[in-house]
Design a protein that fits this description.
Main location: membrane
Number of helices: 21
Number of strands: 2
Shape: globular
Protein name: YfcC family protein
Strand content: under 5%
Number of domains: 1
Organism: Lentihominibacter faecis
Membrane topology: Multi-pass membrane protein
Keywords: Cell membrane, Membrane, Transmembrane, Transmembrane helix
Largest sheet: 2 strands, antiparallel
Low-confidence stretches: 1-8
Amino acid sequence: MEKEKRKFKLKTPNSYVIIMAIIAIVAVLSWIIPGGAYDYVDPNADKLEPIAGTFHTIASHPQGLWSVIMAPITGFMDSVDIILYCLVIGGYIALVMKTGALDAAIGTTMKRLEGKEIMLIPTLMLIFSVAGAAFGIEEETLPFFPVLIPIFIAAGYDSLVGLSVIKIGAALGVMASIANPFAVAIASKFAGISMADGIGIRIILLCIYIPTGIIFTMHYAKKIQKDPTKSLVYAQAEENKKFFLGNGFDKNDLPEFTLKRKLILIVFGLSFLIMIWGVLSWEDLGVTIWPTMGWWFPELTAVFLVASIIVAIIDRIKVDAFMDIFIKGAADLLSVAIIIGVARGVSVIMSDASITDTLLHYCETAVSSMSSGLFAGMNYLIFLVLSFFIPSSSGLATLSMSIMSPLADFAGVGREIVIIAYQSANAMISLIAPTCGLLMGVLAMTKTSFGTWVRFVWKLLVFIATVTVLVLVLACMILY
């Protein structure tokens, strides 16, 4: 009898498995990498600012099995603010969906764009890119995924197209952001330079990044619209349609776009405008007509909670029904909330092991005596590594800039080169690192496996990384 040939196909591990594996690897490294610390400007500050040249070894704290178990739990506790934010967004979106306002808007949009659906991609991607370049929109994109992905699926594309438009679109703007208060502003402050320094280089990068991202996404969208079997998520196409569109979706048989539903959409849109107004550091942008509110996740959660109540009042939803809908919507994003907390465990175990500063010191030593061009390229690579372990843009800027930026003086280049390398590397890593809680949360929200996402995005990221290094090296050669 002829032996039946069996084909074995590698399956991408579950996202939780990937993150726990990284936590375990860091725990093993804690037995190898010595403990170290810098002196800090204010040891009691929420964000520690290290003093360059003060690194010293300290007793190491190797992490064992119990530490590996506790890391994601501690990470979850440290991420309560963003976790609650995610849950409230889930309830808010579910409530707005229940009113039929979004379905009505989707139907109206699809009818107006009949035959021109492809134009949604450059239009929306440009909006998200500009938002990323202007004020570093990242976590703020969360509510847009369940709103916009159904539109792309209804137009004949797949969930990856919607994911690309929002996630990649925003990230490309953040990579060369001109006034991101969470990255450029903080990094410039610690580097002792103006946010305007290096703006010409950033604009050049934006003029490369954004068109490249749009062309990349449109090429994929046209390919799968012509032949749906070429979609990387074709195997789950029906499941995605059911999840995002519900049963029996028909763009010609959607709720009427009534005045009540228009009012609900106005409230929906205003809630996001208020969110943006509250988080932006207007003083740093030179705007004085209103105060900088300094809002973050607690206040944003309150905005969406109040907006939920207003929507319920407009649609005359009773209290019991309101609570049922809201809780079910929050439950839909529970997996997103959990994975964000688990991903935070990587930085927890690094901090507990006292190896974060040691890693930073290794990077400081690596670039301390390089030529200008090599310095620029190596800085980018170093920030890719640092961003993997410290994905927070503000956290990485606070930890690294006071140490890395003065090294530019010895290399004979402007400190803005270090900042551009940092912001572009950090934003790129946010598109592919499993240690980035937001990315893993978005993938969970959109029913996309990490392996599928990597297959989709890796070629674009290789191109972006190559272009970034070339631009930084050329800038050093021409300007300094």
